[in-house]
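Lab notebook, bench 4. We co-purified these components, and the gel suggests they stay together. Before we commit to crystallization screens, I want a quick structural picture of the whole thing.
Request: model the full complex, all chains together.
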Amino acid sequence: MDVEAQETPLLQWKPDDYGGVKVNLTEPMTTEDFVPKLRASLVEWRNQGKKGIWLKLADGLENLIAPAKAEGFKYHHAESDYLMLVSWLSDLHNTIPANASHRIGIAAFVLNSNREVLVVQEIGGPFDGTGVWKLPTGVIKEGEGVWAGAEREVEEETGIKTTFKEVLAFRESHKSFSEKRKTDIMFLCELNMKPGTFEIKKEKTEIYAAKWMPIEEYVNQPWNQEKELFRFMANICLKRSQEMEYVGFSTVRTTTSTGRESYLYCNTDHANLLNATRGPASTSTPTSR
Amino acid sequence: MDVEAQETPLLQWKPDDYGGVKVNLTEPMTTEDFVPKLRASLVEWRNQGKKGIWLKLADGLENLIAPAKAEGFKYHHAESDYLMLVSWLSDLHNTIPANASHRIGIAAFVLNSNREVLVVQEIGGPFDGTGVWKLPTGVIKEGEGVWAGAEREVEEETGIKTTFKEVLAFRESHKSFSEKRKTDIMFLCELNMKPGTFEIKKEKTEIYAAKWMPIEEYVNQPWNQEKELFRFMANICLKRSQEMEYVGFSTVRTTTSTGRESYLYCNTDHANLLNATRGPASTSTPTSR
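Here is the predicted assembly.
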């Protein structure tokens, strides 16, 4: 066995569920303390047949980044309060899971009883100065569901309270952000107005204007007619406003096999059936629609 | 005007599209060279009313991380070859766009003409050792479409060549990865076998076994019956195998308003209509299904 591994204390570590190792450093440490411990640990982990090594460095431990990279670690991802590095020790095919790769947005289609659609004009972004009236849009937050993000964005931008109804469609747009490496998926969601919130109170910093617009006028805007993707989406909204046959995906609230909060979005007829045939405990949850 | 800003050279920078600044450092720089330039640049950017400052540090520039953080920068995200820091200079509401927050996976439902479904047993992961036969699953790569990722995963895991047909449903699973902060969305996709590839050639390092299994036997596995989310999804597959009414989302290939590759996934009847009524140039593209 390696002499260094026997004599030098190791970094504190835990096994992960995939034959790997997790190290979570939060306390200040000098490079002189860190490097021999890391090297001895790597010898030990190799001896144990460990595969992927996760090294999480909290804010303030920037001095350990270059030494870790010198020992073969690479960046995996970062959040505002930590940096995650990773090293693959095994000769086998690298199975380190991918970093988050997508951003999820929503566009909200809300129709009132006069067949008017809720539209906004945005400050900043690609629509600024175009005069185009567009559906309220926004980005889903970490840990937030598509249905919840759609309800939140509509209320934040316009003050209108709604209930999620269906995902009507979604679009994938590649090379969209983060140095043009990541993909943006936008769910076109239909929402129902809650009673008594007809009056618009627009958000001030991101929205120039918000109003109810006759659906045909919205659809026929030159922008929506000239840009194929927008025309397709506008026509789906128009179809819905005419009560023509178009079935989207609704949500069924459930849990994963390990008990985490989870939602299944499926064909609305099927979702209604699933929700209707479940026990009262399930169907009475506020998010089971 | 600040004396330092007049006398010290600035960092090289470009404006972004949202009133911010992009700095992309790739060449080695000493801390002594970097800090005064960064400070002078920050003074200048504030004077110009710039809001968000993006600082991209390539591999090898780890020495600049701590000094940048000392001037108010925070991590935004990292990829294997760079680290992105960001600082918000403005008093206005911080509109720095979110980091990627989701990982997108697929589960592939492939049925042969004997009403048998393509299933696998995985090495590693939560199913290891359970004996459960499951649909081939995988993670969508950066820049890859849902339809393309589904086709790729099936072929990688089983050797079976397929063509994407529909998204049947999708599930959201919160607090799923990256320190339990991020959300996993998994699209349940139906794919059609291409002629002449009936024979399975399983992948060696991640798959114990792969086979064709009668659909009822697949659905009736205790795991699928006991776990609600799996039961819901298995029943959608069963419904499709019985040629019962269940309409999902198909793809229509298009571009965004700025010309980037883009796909709209919408109700299959509607997608078929859109694809059928477009010109030959559109309908002949291999990915217009």
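Chain A is about 25% helix and 35% strand. Worth comparing against the SEC data before the next meeting. Chain A has three domains: 3-88, 102-242, 247-289.
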